[in-house]
TrEMBL record:
It comes from Pseudochrobactrum asaccharolyticum. Residues 1-21 form the signal peptide. Residues 29-112 form the Lysozyme inhibitor LprI-like N-terminal domain. This is Uncharacterized protein YecT (DUF1311 family). It holds the Pfam family LprI. Keywords: Signal.
Length: 219
């Protein structure tokens, strides 16, 4: 036994107890009830990633104003819902689902760490939420070009993609009235809001929507 302990230590191999995972997770593992929560608590690596995500979220909430805080709470709740749907879909084997759960949690923590809480003065930039990305930038002619790439992040049941020129009404608002529209982008402090149900069955014939709040990342 002593030989095994010495060898394992030398090789960097460690055994983790359930108590260690319980301490590392971002929630109380004693109260884990869903299949996803139990999987997180059963894996020290995933539990640690969940803890990092929770710490990033808590730090972000503390720095956010009231409007941003509310939008972040909704987005985080959507993430938890999508995370659980993806893991509990059983569309792949357990090992693949666990790896995906780890990747999804680590990427969420990174995303939360990149969100800017400062009020924006321009529509230009990279804006993200749990569903995907909205990118706005000026072309050589000074026109505002917008790319939207959002989708069902749990099982891929719908996708909304758009690229086009929007008419900029002001520094904080732009509109598109072509096929699939109307599409409106509104800047509200640190949030980019799309109020119209763009990409649903009433516009592009899709099944999802690009409507919602997006957060500036990378700046």
């Amino acid at each position: 036994m002593k030989y095994c302990l010495a060898l394992c230590t030398a090789l960097g191999i460690y055994a983790f107890s359930p108590a260690q995972a319980l301490e590392q997770a971002g929630f109380d593992c004693a109260k884990a009830s869903t299949e996803t929560e139990k999987a997180i608590c059963a894996s020290p690596e995933i539990a640690e990633a969940d803890r990092a995500m929770s710490l990033a979220y808590e730090a972000l909430i503390k720095r956010a104003d009231a409007a941003l805080k509310q939008a972040l709470k909704v987005d985080q709740a959507d993430f938890i819902k999508l995370r659980d749907q993806a893991f509990e879909s059983h569309l792949s084997n357990a090992a693949v689902r666990q790896e995906s759960l780890l990747d999804r949690t680590e990427m969420r923590a990174e995303f939360l760490n990149w969100i800017s809480v400062a009020d924006s003065t321009s529509l230009e930039g990279n804006w993200r939420n749990v569903w995907g990305l909205v990118k706005a930038e000026k072309n050589a002619s000074g026109k505002l070009i917008v790319n939207i790439d959002v989708a069902d992040q749990a099982n891929g049941s719908w996708v909304c993609s758009f690229e086009g020129e929007l008419e900029q009404k002001s520094a904080t608002e732009a509109k598109f009235k072509g096929e699939g529209g109307p599409l409106t982008l509104k800047l509200q402090g640190a949030i980019l809001n799309i109020p119209t149900p763009f990409c649903d069955e009433t516009t592009t014939g899709g099944f999802g929507t690009a409507a919602g709040n997006y957060f500036r990342v990378g700046q």
